[in-house]
Automatic annotation (TrEMBL):
Protein name: CMP/dCMP-type deaminase domain-containing protein
Source taxonomy: Eukaryota, Metazoa, Ecdysozoa, Arthropoda, Hexapoda
UniProt cross-references to InterPro entries, sorted A to Z: Ntn_hydrolases_N
Gene3D superfamilies: (Glycosyl)asparaginase
Length: 103
């Protein structure tokens, strides 16, 4: 599962951005037309995101650090997919992962 992989990367001391990129790239390796994104948040509130198959992936943040909601975005990887019609395995993943314990 993409979420498990991202949490495992956090446990191995990856940043949220690194964990998100690794998780997305693992799916994109097997399913090049994959269309989706993930948001990863570590126990310190650091945020990272990654995506595949779209130009950019916008996401919204709100916290004590950002009391007014802000919209951020990341540029996506694209493994050869150019239109939504080509997606035989087309799904969208967007999740916030909270990891509260490092081993």
């Amino acid at each position: 599962m993409i979420f498990f992989l991202a949490v495992e990367q956090l446990r191995l001391r990856a940043s949220p951005t690194q964990a998100a990129k690794i998780a997305i790239s693992r799916i994109a390796e097997k399913y090049p037309s994959f269309f989706g994104g993930i948001i990863v948040v570590d126990k310190n509130g650091n945020v990272g995101a990654a995506c595949n198959g779209m130009g950019t992936f916008p996401y919204t943040l709100a916290s004590a650090e950002y009391p007014d909601t802000i919209v951020k975005s990341v540029n996506c990887t694209d493994n050869g997919s150019d239109t939504l019609a080509r997606y035989s395995l087309s799904f969208y993943i967007c999740a916030i992962l909270l990891f509260n314990y490092y081993i």
